[in-house]
Amino acid sequence: MILRFAIAAEYKDSEIGCHIIRVSDYSMAIARSLNFSPKKLKIIRFASIMHDIGKIGIPSAVLHKKDFTSKDYDRIKEHTKIGGRIFSGSLSPILKVAGEIALYHHEWYDGSGYPFGLKARKIPLYARIVAIADAFDVIVSERSYKKSETIDKAIEVIKRRKGTQFDPGIVDAFIKALPSIRETLKATHTIDDFLKENKRFLRKA
Ligand SMILES: [Fe+2]
User: Fold this and answer.
1) How far is the CA of 80 from the centre of ligand 1 (A)?
2) What's the structural domain count of the chain?
3) How much distance in Å is there from the Cα of 12 to the middle of ligand 1?
4) Which of 66, 105, 182, 184 could anchor a disulfide with 25, C-beta 3.0 to 4.6 Å?
5) How far is the CA of 186 from the centre of ligand 1 (A)?
6) Which domain holds residue 7?
7) Where residue 202 falls among pLDDT bands split at 50, 70, 90?
């Protein structure tokens, strides 16, 4: 269901497809260096894919602008609450975590993020991981409003924001996971590739 949802989101924004799969790969790599159990790795693998699902509720004309006004930015911020609402009340562990990630992945460790300004460990762990994975991918990718940066520049930004935007312990796990993250960047990951690679799990599910 999550992957079908992801395909639907890709129709809204063609940038989404590869981005969400890469974010899932980086999140897994970070979670591995935090010694997550296989069960928790599976949860973050799939739940992280849905971090931006709330963007289906934001008009494409706003999402693809070159210059955002503060009003546009406020509208885009709503994707967190929309994503949280999509999964609210879910009982399955993956969907529950998907809701947490969608709602809290733009919170900052120092409390200056959105939508609630939660601080440190008040932000769910899975969302603190995806926050780094997502920010890293956005920095190295081209967007309608910005050019892509080098991997080294992105690593420098993540390190610089240790303790402000990002959880210091998870920044360390990200650094440890860099060899695997660099490998991910070399490959093209589409949702269709992902479906093929995860067929065995999907059949079981
Ligand atoms: Fe987001």
Assistant:
1) 7
2) 1
3) 15
4) 184
5) 23
6) 2-204
7) low
